[in-house]
Design brief:
About 20% of the residues lie in helices and about 30% in strands. By secondary structure, the chain is an alpha+beta fold. The protein has a five-stranded mixed beta sheet.
Length: about 90
């Protein structure tokens, strides 16, 4: 199982859950499993079908995963964190 840690932007939409466990072998399939289970998160995670929203930073075990590496393999016990980008100026 892979644990996906969720920040407040996500957690507030799914009853305050701060993490979700999914069964997936790749980063993109884990994100798809998350949004299949919680469709209310789809617009936050996915920009278009198959394309992760670029304002979200995706980390696996504290290492940022680039968009061209979302098909990378996960190991049992890996942890994904989705962090919304913070804009400022």
């Amino acid at each position: 199982m892979t644990r996906i840690r969720l920040h407040a932007l996500f957690a507030e939409r799914i009853g305050g859950r701060q993490s979700v466990e999914v069964e997936a072998s790749q980063v993109d399939t884990a994100l798809r499993a998350l949004t299949d289970r919680y469709p209310e998160l789809t617009r936050l995670v996915w920009l278009r079908e198959g394309e992760v929203n670029p304002v979200m930073a995706i980390f696996v075990n504290d290492r940022q995963v680039r968009a061209d590496d979302f098909s990378s393999c996960l190991e049992p016990g890996d942890q994904i964190e989705i962090i919304p980008a913070i804009s400022g100026g």
